[in-house]
Amino acid sequence: VFYKIMGQVEQALAVVSECCQICISQLGESRSTFICGTYEDLGEMCQELGQIQAAKAYFDKSFEIRSKMKSKSIQLVELYCKFANLFLSTGEIEKAEEYLKTAQETLESLDLHKYSLPMTLQRIGGILITIGRVTEGEEILKRAEDLETEKSGDTLAQASNYQTRGATYLASGQYDKALEYFEKCYETRVSITEGRDDNDISLCTVKYNVATVYTHLGREDDALKAFEEILETFRKARKGNNWSSVEAESHYRIACILLQRGKSTEAQEHYLKEIEIREALGFSKAALASTKINLGKVYHSDGNLAKAEEIYLEVKQVLDEEKSFSFDYISCLNNLGSCKFDHEDYVSAETYWSQAYKMLEEQLPLSVELARAYSNMGYICVKTSRIDEAITYISKKIQIETQICPNSLPLADSYSSLVDVLREKGKHEVALKFCRKASEIQRKLVSRSAILCSTLIKTALVMIEVANSSENKEQQLMMAKTYVTEAFEITQELPEGGGLTILECFSAFSAIHYAQGKLSEAIEDREKGLVLAREKKLRNNYFAQMLEALVQLYNESLEFDKCYQYAQEALGIREELGYKEEELWGLYYYQAISSWYLGHQPASVLDNLLKAQRIYESKTVKDQKIEAVVLALICDSRYKMQQSREEIYPDAERAITLFNGIGERAAYYPLPYLAQIYVLFKEQNIADAEVLLDKIKDYFEEQGECREGLSAYFYFSYRVQVCRFKKDLETAMTYQAILRDLMEKYLPETLTSASAYWSYADMLFEHSDFDEGVLNLKKGVELFKKLSVVDDWGLCY
Is pLDDT at 703 greater than 50 in this prediction? Predict the structure, then answer.
């Protein structure tokens, strides 16, 4: 009993097993009633540890003895109920109902005094409610309550009945009724004392139950207040180090809420306090496993995967020594798999998750735990592009939950997971149907919650995907905006905007504006989210993801100063969190591109590009376009540094081959050609240079339109030089005029544009067009002056 109170179920099991063996060896099985009770204790403890087959074996031993007794007893009815509960835990509802029916029939056949019935009736009523026969279960519970009150006639017994009924409703997920009875229990217990005494430790357990139900109902503020009141009561009443498990549990619950709100540092403090209390109470390392796993989750949520993995492995080592199946062991495997998954080590992730689900299939078929394990396998299949397998695993999860918890939040979560897989498969219309199924359940159970908000946001994102291939795109996008607006309005009612949920709203608004082609609005939405994240002092993985999204948007909007700034910040956070270089490829890529566009020193740009290239080459999945872009920028940087043919030509040839292979004609396409042209000019090989210029002519002069940008500056500059070399001054003038106009339009107020005015003025002077030449030169002077380029300003004068 002591070990069970301390949460050390394994030790309790060992002691009872030894007790059982002593009794059998000394007395045989003649003391049948005592031996049966011991077997049943062993069975219940094995069930609590998740050792289902062992639990059934002990119950079977007890039944074998009891069935040989001459007369049936209330204990036999209790045993049938224990069998029913066992099969309920594995999701075998039909077997559970068979044993329950037998229990009821046996109870009716017994000639018992009515006052011996309440506890058994409570057990039967609880099982009936759990399997969905609510009305019948409530009638039996009411009968038990009336008998108990009649028997004792005191309010303490009444409080105990309320407590039992509350626990029954809590176990069956009927949180409103659970709260009703726990509050009745609390008020009854208070009435026993002389008024309410907030320092009365005896009330803390009852208040804890009330607070726990608050968390299930999404009333997090009320829950936090109640848990804090419990802790304050213990602080005031403490003498020495007399800790309580209720105090430890309250720290745990507070930590869970804080973690959900993104307050990982505060959550960590409470988890550590929980561990301190449990250690002081004498909990074994194995008994502390679940708490330490939760602490690992804090580091995990912060993106500190290395620290999280260290904790999970430490717990696994302890549990490996136990050499028995337990829920903590499954949780440990699942979290280790999650760490590896987030590190993109999908092989190791699948190894851990496969081990977990195979153990569960053997020990707990048709259980919530197995359903979660199938969900993990679905994720890994998605990441390794095995979409059909993913759908199979998640469908298995839904099949289990439809049987054991229909119309429940876990089932809604499964629908949401299936949505993710269907999106990967491109089946957006089907995904939308399951989004609505998920939100339909959530609206009934948690109508104004962060959970519903997340589903509404996901629905909006799916609608964006549907809209992209729809004739009614704008209408679909407006509908998506309605869902996000509803989610946003709910977050305004939630404490601190529902934690990260309000940030997800801004991300979704951004996605809608982006789909509408409103890039500036999309950026503005993301920036609003970023401001809030900074106010929350986030510096975790989620915050880094927000920065990455902005990096991509600023890259597209050609705001490379912001792109570079946020890429640098995101890299800093990821590196702090222990990410490896190969996991940061995207950020290094954008950092290198923005560095190039910003005109940083070519040597610095080249260093960034070579780093990005080295990381890219270590990746198993490659994108030829990205490889070509990086090579093209490397070529450009080398040529600006005036490097040799040997350093430029190999990368240029590879980039050109890749671009031609994928049919790509993006902004980076001409860069390797221009680098080669530079080499040819340097070698005075004007003829071959002109051949290469002709190859990219269509890119710059397609359909009478002239391409913009810095590469256009170099292309038309080389065209001018070729024409000058061939003494074709008229054509040279034409190209130089195009060059000046392009720079004026696309790169105004830059050194490049100022130089274009100057060069064009020189050519006009050669043609004795002094008025026009002076006019262009004056524009160059003004720009050089504005840009504070003193030398060129003076030369222009």
Answer: no
| Amino acid at residue number 392 | T
- Over residues 590-613, the mean pLDDT reads 83
For residue 729, pLDDT over 50 is answered with: yes
Quick: pLDDT tens for 13-44: 778 778 877 777 776 655 567 778 888 888 88
Give the CA distances from residue 168 to residues 136, 164, 406, 682, in Å, rounded to whole numbers and listed in that order: 14, 6, 18, 86
Q: By C-alpha distance, which of 547, 625, 620, 627 is closest to 583?
A: 620
Which region, left, alpha or beta, applies to residue 251 given φ > 0 means left and ψ of -120 to 50 means alpha?
A: alpha
Q: What is the pLDDT of residue 337?
A: 92
- Nearest-5° Cα angle at 673, 669 to 677: 155
Return the C-alpha torsion angle 301, 305, 310, 311, nearest 10. 10
How far is it, in rounded angstroms, from Cα 99 to Cα 84? 5
Contact 228, 273 (CB under 8 A): no
Which of 456, 550, 459, 526 lies closest to 498 in space, CA to CA?
A: 456
Number of H helices, E strands in the chain: 40, 0
Is the pTM higher than 0.85? The answer reads no
Looking at residues 534-557, what average pLDDT do you find?
Answer: 88
CA dist., res. 691 & res. 762, Å (int)? 27
Q: Tokens standing for 583?
A: 């996991």
* pLDDT tens-digit map of 356-394: 989 888 877 777 788 888 988 988 888 888 889 989 999
- CA atoms within a 13 Å half-sphere pointing along the CA-CB vector of 656: 18
- As a whole number of angstroms, the distance between CA 227 and CA 211 comes to 6
Per the CB < 8 A criterion, the answer to whether 738 and 722 are in contact is: no
**pLDDT for the residue numbered 510:** 95
Q: Three-state secondary structure along 12-56?
A: HHHHHHHHHHHHHHHHCCCCHHHHHHHHHHHHHHHHHCCCHHHHH
Closest CA to 744 of 771, 718, 706: 706
Mapped to the 3 state alphabet, what secondary structure does 56-118 carry? Answer: HHHHHHHHHHHCCCCCCCHHHHHHHHHHHHHHHHCCCHHHHHHHHHHHHHHHHHCCCCHHHCH
Distance separating the N- and C-terminal Cα atoms of the chain? 98
Name the 3-class secondary structure at 353: helix
